[in-house]
Design brief:
Largest sheet: 5 strands, antiparallel
Strand content: over 45%
Number of strands: 29
Helix content: 10-25%
Distance between the termini: 25 Å
Shape: globular
Radius of gyration: 21 Å
């Protein structure tokens, strides 16, 4: 750790004021700030700094509901101001022009929400929504204008986009600082015995990309890899060396596109039959989050320690998102003409090679009309 001392002016301030200042710094800068001094490292401990971030309301979880006839309604999970400290849902102002046949994916970068719009007939269109100032910005056209979207993800301050371009598989990166596109590392296949890399052969492409024309249900970035999650042929692309390969989902029969989340560089997926899982990128396999008890709306308890326990039997849909360093687990229960939205926050802890979770008491966030269908769930971490 760097032994330089923070500014005397800053160190002379009361600790509460220093914490409030640091809480207003973008969270993506924390790994660098924690190296400045031991004092900064102490102040930026998640258990301490997240308390102050909650006080000033830096984070939000956004839910997008499809309402029919290409309509959408937005809600935001935010801090509640009353004394019980529970969170609440409020209306959110998003206006995304989408044609009826267009699909869309979301990536967040601080207060910016990057929308990727695409279809089988339309090449990817990128728009950045500033959630603070409520304005849209366009991203320049990619270098390869024929590229058909396969997957995308944010690594550092670069947006990586992977796609088909005729017979080739290509990747490009967009620098969010310079606002320019550049070629990303070309696709290579690594021999697992010799670890030598080579360009993918026709057989390699058929093995991993035969169904990549099916667009991803969800995308994620972790460990500098970009993941395209779908029921058929989920694949990852390593932005460091261009290597790629298939990986298995926890359940090959179902995937809830809103039940995917990355927290502290770890990819999580919730499966209604198995529970909350995380992807061990070292062992290349999915593992259970241990010690976690998730309540249902009937006050029953399901544990991840027993795969034969009943899932959330009344839940209609699930959502996962990062909320002040905890995993916000949301589920929707049908009840006549309305749908109840429930929420619990899960504290995740890495212990050795295992991840354990502790769920806080769950509570209702309110209701939405029964015709609402959850389409997207994502967090904005400032």
């Amino acid at each position: 750790m760097v032994s330089c001392k923070p500014s005397p002016m800053l160190s002379s301030l009361p600790e509460e004021l220093r914490l409030e200042i640091l809480a207003r710094v973008p969270k993506r800068r924390y790994p660098f700030l924690s190296l400045v001094s031991k004092e900064f490292h102490r102040l930026l401990r998640p258990s301490l700094i997240n308390t102050w971030r909650r006080r000033i309301g830096t984070d939000s979880v956004y839910l997008c509901f499809a309402t029919g006839n290409n309509g959408r309604a937005w809600r935001a999970l935010q801090n509640h101001d009353d004394k019980n400290g529970e969170n609440c849902l409020v209306s959110a102002d998003f206006d995304i022009p989408l044609a009826p046949d267009m699909r869309w994916l979301v990536i967040t970068y601080g207060v910016d929400v990057i929308f990727i719009l695409f279809s089988r007939r339309v090449k990817p269109i990128f728009r950045i929504f500033d959630s603070r100032n409520k304005v849209f910005r366009l991203i320049p056209v990619m270098q390869d204008e024929q590229l058909m979207l396969i997957s995308a993800g944010l690594v550092g301050e670069k947006l990586y986009v992977v796609g088909n371009s005729g017979p080739r598989i290509r990747a490009e990166s967009f620098d969010l600082k310079t606002q320019t596109w550049d070629s990303a590392p070309p696709f290579v296949v690594f021999d697992k015995k010799t670890n030598d890399g080579a360009a993918p052969t026709f057989i390699d492409r058929m093995r991993c990309f035969d169904r990549w024309f099916i667009y991803p249900d969800a995308i994620a970035s972790a460990d500098k890899k970009v993941y395209g999650l779908r029921l058929h042929n989920p694949v990852y692309y390593d932005t460091r060396d261009g290597s790629w390969d298939r990986f298995e989902l926890p359940n090959q029969k179902q995937l809830c596109s809103t039940g995917v989340c990355v927290i502290n560089n770890v990819l999580y997926v919730y499966d209604s039959g198995l529970g909350l899982m995380w992807y061990d990128s070292a062992l290349l396999r999915w593992r259970m989050v241990l010690g976690l008890h998730l309540p249902t709306a009937l006050n029953r308890v399901v544990t991840n320690l027993n795969l034969h326990e009943a899932p959330l039997v009344n839940a209609h849909c699930f959502g996962l998102a990062d909320f002040y360093g905890k995993l916000a687990f949301l589920w929707i229960e049908e009840s006549g003409d309305v749908k109840n939205i429930w929420c619990t926050l899960i504290q995740l802890r890495m212990t050795g090679s295992e991840i354990n979770g502790t769920a806080e008491p769950f509570h209702s966030l309110g209701t939405v009309p029964s015709r609402f269908e959850l389409e997207k769930c994502f967090s904005v971490v400032r």
